[in-house]
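ok here's Lysyl-tRNA synthetase:
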Amino acid sequence: MLFCYFLFKKLITLFVIFNISETSCVKYFHKRSLFILPKHQSLEKNSFSINNNLISRTSSYNNDNIFNFIHFNTSETTENHLTNTNQPQSPTDSCGNNSADDVLCATNEHTDTSLVSSLCSYDYGPHLVKQIKSRLDHYEFLTKKFKVNPYPEVQPSNDYSSFSKVISENEILTNGEEVDRFYKVYGRVESVRFDGHFIDIINCRRDFCEYPTSEITLKGLRKDNKIQLMFRLEEQIVVDQGRYTNDNEENVLGNNFACNQNQEYPCKEVVDLIDIGDVIELYGNVKKTNLGEISIIPKKIKFLSKCLIPPPSKQHGLKDVETRYRLRHLDLLTNELTRYQVLKRFQVISKIRKFLTEREFVEVDTPILQHYAYGDLAEPFETYYKRLNEKVKLRIAPEFSIKKIFMGLPLTKVFEIGKCFRNEGSSLRHSPEFTMIEIYQKMADYNTMIKLLEDLINYLLSYGFDEDSVCKNVFEIKWSRSRFSELIKEYTGIDITLYSKEELMDKFKELLSKTDNTRLEQIESSMEVITWGSISNEIFEKFVVPNLKYPVHVTHFPTQVSPLTYFEGEFSKDNDSNSFEKMFSHRFESYLGGMEIANSSTEQCNPLKLSKSLLESDVFEGKGNNIKEKEVDREFLNAAFSGMEPMAGLGIGVDRLIMYITKAKNIKEIQPLTSLKRL
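and the structure:
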């Protein structure tokens, strides 16, 4: 066997060097029994328009290999894959016109790959173009000869059996035993083996109700996510044509519209038209193979969706990171970890809603397009509103909008889950488009929000996790609380309460000179607009946050970087720029795994203090000392002066929370779709 393998590699190299056609290569190895062709299959010109197993099963591609013949003449179970050469070919060769290789890409006059190519963003290369042509041939053959609609209209049905049910009800069978228990299942074809005798399909019908969190782990989906089909190629099989008769109006408008048209065909002919990636429906009885594999023996088949572009191979998958993000549907099909992370995202959001609604919180929604985009120092996305004839911004945070409606509603607890936007660069933990939860409760303070956040996170981490849980040890670490100024003193040795703005800047420069000269230059160039609070916050972000690897609530941030939060003390009546120096607010940030996942505070409801702190903060556009120059939301201030009830708010970054739960290293991994530059 080892000798045959090296002989095979050597001869393949010679074929490539001397530019011998792929057809000759196939014939050569067929004569020497190094791989097996079906007896009925010919290698003459145009023979692949119907029974082209070799090319049709090339549904897994790996551009790094010249050849990937896997269908060897051995007793081992191997997948029926064949990948053609990746060597450069002339346009004439790739199209099969007047070429020695046209046998491999022969198509009938109705098959048009230009349509498929025009809809795709990638140059698949000649070898994949041939596979696409072959799949289009299968589509043509299904529709012309078998009169099958490969994309039928279907109705909801409760007749389908889950893979877990099929497996659990037949585990007691002995090896080789066959029973007359019939099941109806459907799934996506994952692999074809032994010339179509065995086909594996993966489950397509996982609902949240039947897919508890305990069944998803970092190791991937459960074993019952896949089931084996065992076709008896020498027998007949019923093909559901996926069409409805419309002989009379009563029949069309009756129950189930009409009866499906079913015809019997040789099983071998039907199986030859199945490609990896197809979605098919099967009805058949069960047998446990001699190797103990529970299999369904199909008696009836229905094509639900034909896959016309070969999916990536199961072995190699999509390795290029950009390709994974750009072709996310293929990544979800082939990467179990990606499926786990995206499913976990949806479940976490669902569980958050359940947690809050059970505690009498009411979900609200507010506009995404706003005149004022408040939220840290972020730059907003802008667009043009034709009806208003003015520019508007995509919200950075929904805080102002929620407070304005919350003030007038007879509700005590509200929340919103929605998209927010920041027109800035992306990183492993930052995305210009992200999902946020804003929670507000009247007659509450920031301590109430701390308790709510801890209960929520513990609820999410404890729900349905099994021995493979990535967060099973979270309860061994208790949440701690530390003041903002105390953490800075602990990690830098600087007591910020002892220094003025200028003195604190000198201390900051001294720290930066040892680590980051570039940041030092940026600070010096903008020193006139830097406040005592923002310098303190820079020190915290640079030297404290990287050390917060444990669950911790950091409390009492400087008032100058927390303009909407409640703070102790009074401001001076004159317009002194230092009136808020060394004042701290009732605000906290929560950190898990070195990431900030939540931000909360007791809200400032005193309109006089609120106006003063807004004018001195750095979070609004403009540099003036009045409301108009600062571009502050005056409707929000009007609501504040109308009498806002005492309240507390909590904002949670959903993406980062899911990153922590799934241990994802990149925020893009847990986003279903990401924004990339167009090709």
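+1. The chain has four domains: 2-144, 163-245+258-317, 338-479+551-670, 487-549.
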